[in-house]
Amino acid sequence: MNKEIEQYKKIITSLFEEISSEDEVIKKAAAVIGDSIMQDKVIHVIGPGGHSNLAVEEMFSRAGGFACVNAILDPGTNLSHGGFRSLKVERVPGYANAVLSSYGVGKTPGEVLLIVNAYGINAMTIDSALYAKKMGLTSIAVTSRSFADKIPKDHPSRHPTGANLYQSVDIFINNHLPYGDAILSVDGCEQNVGPTSTFCNCFTVDYLTVEICKYLVSKGYTPPIFRSGNLPGGDEYNKSLFEKYSGKAILLF
Question: Which among 77, 116, 149, 198 could bridge 55 via Cys, Cβ 3.0 to 4.6 Å?
Answer without folding.
Answer: 116
